[in-house]
Amino acid sequence: MALNVVVFVGGVGGAKLAYGLAHILPPENLTIIVNTGDDFWHYGLRVCPDLDTIMYTLSGLVNKTNGWGIDGDTRAVLDAMQRYGEAPWFQLGDQDIATHLLRTQALADGETLTQITTKLNTALGVQHRVLPMTDAPVATMVDTVDQGELAFQTYFVRHRWQPVVKSLRFEGVEAAAVTPEVRAALQSADVILIGPSNPWLSIAPILAVPGMRELILAYDVPRVAVSPIIGGKAVKGPAAKLMVELGYEQTAQAVADYYGEVINGFVVDTVDAGLSLGVQHTANFEIIMNSESDRISVAKNVLQWIQAWV
Amino acid sequence: MALNVVVFVGGVGGAKLAYGLAHILPPENLTIIVNTGDDFWHYGLRVCPDLDTIMYTLSGLVNKTNGWGIDGDTRAVLDAMQRYGEAPWFQLGDQDIATHLLRTQALADGETLTQITTKLNTALGVQHRVLPMTDAPVATMVDTVDQGELAFQTYFVRHRWQPVVKSLRFEGVEAAAVTPEVRAALQSADVILIGPSNPWLSIAPILAVPGMRELILAYDVPRVAVSPIIGGKAVKGPAAKLMVELGYEQTAQAVADYYGEVINGFVVDTVDAGLSLGVQHTANFEIIMNSESDRISVAKNVLQWIQAWV
């Protein structure tokens, strides 16, 4: 019998591990819980970048060069907006817009984000369960030194994560709740994983949902993070830059410290084998996931290592 | 000095006359008041088919083969919807969707349909004033013999106007009001025209806006309709079929009777020269508008004829 695995993820980095896990675990044994702090309204559409990156990755539709969006997508809608004087700064492909339209309409019709996420994923043939961290709208807000507080996508995409970050907050999270679906997944989890996503931008919003931490810690199961920092550098994105700005050392160890009691296991890359991590269970192996087979072998190695100590 | 002209129109047929008028009248002398009874929500977008047909026609973006939509538009968004099990029955091109997104967002932000229509038209270089008949949502509802009451686009596009019509009503029109912009245009009009649009489906909703009829009749000016029926047939669309179903004769004369006191002038095609129309001023000339030059010459002939009797 396969273990019941729950994995917390953000976008591109987490999607790679989720893809590897989905390749080796049957649908009923894997639940992917996704950050929705990046979600925002754009041209009246509810855009959920991390949920869609996971869905497009697992369905095989993803643009493999970018790691997000749909392969071969066009941008006729955005180009036409320019005729009206708009200067679109967030890439929305035409095929991608179909996703946003259906989601926006379903939300307006009173469906939960969990329901519409399941519907969209199922329609695209994704059999493993993909769940938003909560059904309530949560907005990651980034306070910056020079430009004040910015909405996440303004910081991340419009300003290409260049502003220096002072602090982060998750607007609306106090009113958010763990969904019945997330609760059920965590309650039946044999293993809880945290993908190599940005701990502050992608994982922290999930952990900030009231009740989430308690649910993670409620059972004595392996709770293992895969480091997003390798040799002091972020594989992708602003993680390392952000760590400096928020006063952390740029090391995998600082990530482990940040997760604290949430994890009891930590996987680093072989280049970080020498670090003293202060986590109960640690392992090191190649965790860079460039190819499809990398993703599968990282997922396999993580699960095999965990099975050895449970 | 050019006359101040107001023209009431629906979609494709009316757009041809509006195009001709815009060609010969300076922007400040022409106001085009457009039916919005066809407007509807589709995939969460506010779609205004007649307003867009007018805008695309006047801006030159229009697909000239169809008479609606944007030339060279693609359908990546709708095709992608099929992946999710949708079966789109109303054609929304990708470039067209940009229009609907901006309009929907502006309406959600509290702009009036008049404001957003002006903004969109101006951005596309349309200098003549295009106004919705009202800012309130009005929905043409079609009661049919076999399928009960259908929303207009369900009747018109989904069922290709094949159901037999019993009656029409304009949902919401009681609560609609003439806008200050429409009022001002009518109050300064030297000539009021009714385009060769469907009298029951395109012009009746406009005339049903409370106060509209009174404004039209308030001044002793030429009020001239161009017949949509030529030799007992509709140039395009369901007008003739509908006339039979609603108990009218399929003639230009029945159109003139239907307009009644609203008009004091009526233009028919030369093939209908023999009809006894019961309207104070009548004229006949070629009114089929196949080519661009047809549109201009029909507009010119109508205005010249009117100028001869004022």
Explain the layout of strands and helices.
2 copies of one chain form a homodimer.
Chain A: E1 5-9, H1 12-24, E2 30-34, E3 40-42, E4 45-47, H2 49-59, H3 76-83, H4 94-108, H5 113-123, E5 129-132, E6 139-144, E7 148-151, H6 152-158, E8 165-171, H7 180-187, E9 191-194, H8 199-208, H9 212-217, E10 223-226, E11 229-230, E12 233-234, H10 239-245, H11 252-259, E13 265-268, E14 281-284, H12 292-309
Parallel strand pairs in A: 1-2, 1-9, 2-5, 9-10, 10-13, 13-14
Antiparallel strand pairs in A: 3-4, 6-7, 6-8, 11-12
How does this model look, in words?
The structure is a homodimer of 310-residue chains. The first copy, chain A, has 310 residues and is of the alpha/beta class. Chain A has one domain: Rossmann fold. Helix content of chain A is 39%, strand content 18%. The first copy, chain A, has twelve helices and 14 strands. In chain A, the strands form four sheets. Chain A has a seven-stranded parallel β-sheet with strand order 5-2-1-9-10-13-14, with helices on both faces. In chain A, strands 7-6-8 form a three-stranded antiparallel β-sheet. The first copy, chain A, has a two-stranded antiparallel ribbon with strand order 3-4. In chain A, a hairpin with a 2-residue loop joins strand 11 and strand 12. The mean pLDDT of chain A is 96. Chains A and B meet through helix 3, helix 4 and helix 5 of A and helix 3, helix 4 and helix 5 of B.
